[in-house]
Design goal:
Length: about 280
């Protein structure tokens, strides 16, 4: 809107209604239609050929079995390397756990959530091989009670850090951690303000900026294909430690900084694992 574009949006689109939503916006003359999530991929590929003058952008992983060279020129995918930031968060958890037990509450069993959990587990295994991550994929982003129940179970098992990547469900996990005075790693935004004495950091992606950048890519003629931004692009990162900076050992902070530098240079490639690992 700030750049003079007409903007409209639809919330909570059921999977069965995605194709219709794409069709409606394209038929109304919108030049760019964005689907936020990998589930928008196949519908975008079905609708795009009918509207060659409309750009369709999916902020999610390309559907399996689709070759890059077969993408319609008016379709773009963004397979964000959110898992790179989850890996950095895992380094913090590995260095801060005293019990050697860490809880992780995820949302739906989708590629981005599975790869986040896997990267987090991979980092903990590297930096603290004796530690154990208790990962729970709740199956929802919208059930705080389920998140709270999951985190409580992990805390009862001895977890002294709770990491969440489950949006509203994760807020329930945070509530459980606050009640138990357990350290927290947040998600999606810097969640320090929720519990400044407990939130170690948060892993974050600049979703809004990524979507806005598609307008610039259209104007520059670089729209389309597959874009995979991550830590090296400044799109994925972890939040400052704020008041807990003095609590986190220097060695842990140096490990995070080194891993970030290695990811940026290409010396470290965080594996993209789209399945459960423990």
């Amino acid at each position: 809107k700030d750049k003079g574009y007409e903007v409209a949006f639809t919330e909570s689109v059921a999977i069965s209604a995605i194709e219709e939503a794409f069709n409606n916006y394209a038929a109304q003359g919108f030049n760019l239609v964005v689907g936020h999530g990998f589930e928008f991929g196949e519908p975008a590929l079905r609708v795009a050929p009918q509207f060659p003058d409309v750009k369709f952008f999916v902020s999610g992983k390309m559907p399996d079995g689709v070759a890059l060279e077969d993408l319609p020129p008016n379709v773009g995918f963004m397979d964000m390397k959110e898992y790179e930031a989850a890996y950095l968060a895992g380094i913090v958890a590995a260095g801060m756990t005293k019990s050697g037990k860490i809880g992780y509450v995820a949302g739906m069993e989708i590629p981005s959530q599975l790869s986040n959990l896997a990267a987090f587990v991979t980092a903990v295994a590297k930096y603290n091989p004796e530690a154990k991550v208790y990962g729970i994929v709740t199956g929802t982003f919208e059930d705080p009670a389920k998140g709270q129940e999951a985190a409580k179970a992990q805390i009862e098992l001895g977890a002294d850090i709770i990491c969440q990547s489950a949006d509203s469900t994760g807020m329930g996990a945070i509530e459980a951690a606050i009640a138990a005075k357990t350290y927290i790693i947040g998600y999606g935004a810097d969640q320090n303000q929720l519990a400044p004495d407990l939130v170690l950091t948060s892993f974050i992606t600049k979703n809004a900026e990524v979507i806005q950048m598609q307008v610039e890519r259209i104007e520059a003629g670089t729209f389309g294909g597959l874009w995979a931004p991550g830590v090296a692009d400044g799109i994925c990162y972890i939040a400052p430690y704020h008041d807990l900076d003095s609590v986190i050992p220097e060695e842990v902070k140096k490990n995070v900084e080194q891993a970030q530098a290695d990811i940026t240079s290409g010396a470290l490639v965080v594996p993209a694992i789209y399945e459960r690992i423990d």
